[in-house]
Amino acid sequence: MTTENLFLPCEGGDIHVQQDGPHDAPALVLVHGLAASAHWWDAIVPELSGAHRVIRIDLLGHGGSAAPEGPGYGVPEHGRRVGAVLDHLGLDRVVGIGHSTGGLVVTALAEERPGLVTAMALIDTGPRLDAFLSNGSAGRLLLTPGVGRLLWRLRTDGLIRKALSTGFSRTGYAIPQQIADDVRAMTLHAMLATSRGAEDYLGQRPVPERLTALGIPLLVVFGEQDRRWRPSSATDYTAVPRARVEMLPGLGHSPMLEDPRVTAAILRTFLAAPPPNHPRRARNP
Fold first, then answer.
1. How does pLDDT run across 166-176, given as a tens digit for each residue?
2. 169 touches 225 (CB < 8 A)
3. Which of 99, 87, 37 is nearest to 267 (CA)?
4. Residue pLDDT, tens place only, 77-120
C-alpha cells in the first residue's frame, strides 16, 4: 500500500494529510482524537482502502500539522479545517469517522457543512461532559496548567505511556513507539487548547442532540472497557434516529488499535449499508 502525503494550507497553518486507496472510490475522512495523529488509524487503513478513498488528517497542533501558539484549537475551527482540506481535494461527499475528540470534530464539520458528511461513525466519543471518567493521574497532571508545564519539560517515554494508558483496556496493550513519539512532538499549548475546546463543545450541547438534528446514518462503536468515558453512556446515542451502537467486549477506548480486525469489520458493514437504529453487543467477526 502506497500512502500519499500532502501538506495543505489552511487557516492557522499547513495541515498534514494522508491518502490511500483509489481516488475515484467513495471517500472516507478519518479524524483522530486529542494528542493523537493519523498513525492511530494505520492498522485499519489497509482494511478500508481497497474499496474507499481513505483520507487521514492530522488536526492543527497534532502529528505533522502546524502547531501555532494562540487561538484556533476549538472544535468548530478544527472542523472547518477538515472541510477546507476536503475542498482542496475536490470532495463534496464523504463518510466521516472520528475517534474520541475526533468524533466531535466530525460532528462539527457535519453541522457546518450540510450535505458534505453523508454518514458518520464515532468511535468512543463521549456523548456529554458528565460521562467523562478520567485521563488517569499522569494525564490529569499533564493537562493541569502550571504543573503540566513542568512535567512537559521533563516528559519521558514512561510518563507519556502512563498518560496514554487510560486510552486502552487493562489487558496490557503494548503502546507502539510511534504513538508515544507523536505525543512527545506536540506542544503543550496545542494539547491544552484542544482539550479545552472539546470541553467547551460538549458543554454547549450533548453530541446525541446535535446528531439528531443532522438526520444522517450513524454508527457508534464503544469499547466495553473504556476507561475515559463511561461505557454505559453509549446508550445515549440510541436516541438518535438511524443510529446503531456496537459495544465491543474486552476492548477499551481505542479499539482500532487494540483490535483493528474487529473494528474494521464493523466499519465495513456500516459502509456497505448504513444500518437503522439497532443497538447490540458486537461479536468478534
1. 999 987 789 99
2. yes
3. 99
4. 999 999 999 999 999 999 999 999 999 999 999 999 999 999 99
H runs (alpha helix) in the chain: 45-48, 75-88, 101-112, 136-142, 147-153, 157-164, 177-185, 188-204, 207-214, 255-258, 260-272
Q: Are strands 53-57 and 94-99 parallel, antiparallel or unpaired?
A: unpaired
Query: Residue 85 has which C-alpha cell?
Result: 482540506
Q: For 132, which DSSP code?
A: B
Q: Of the candidates 155, 100, 152, 158, which has an alpha carbon nearest to the alpha carbon of residue 124? A: 100
- In angstroms, the Cα distances linking 140 to 1, 38, 65, 151, 156 are 38, 23, 25, 11, 16
Residue 176's Cα: distance from chain center in Å?
Answer: 18
Higher confidence at residue 136 or residue 14? 14
Cα–Cα dist 285/266, whole Å = 8
**Average pLDDT of the residues in 3-16:** 97
Q: pTM to 2 decimals?
A: 0.92
pLDDT higher for 277 or 113?
A: 113
Contact 252, 167 (CB under 8 A): yes
CA–CA dist 102, 26 (Å, integer): 20
Q: Which CATH architecture has domain 4-134+190-281?
A: 3-Layer(aba) Sandwich (3.40)
Q: What are the extents of the domains in the chain?
A: 4-134+190-281
What radius of gyration do the chain's Cα atoms show?
17
Strands laid side by side in the 280-281 sheet? 4-10, 13-20, 53-57, 27-31, 94-99, 117-123, 218-223, 243-248, 280-281
Asked if pLDDT for residue 147 goes beyond 60, the answer is: no
256 alpha carbon, distance to own chain's centre: 10
Burial of 275 (0-12, 13-18, 19+ CB in 10 A): middle
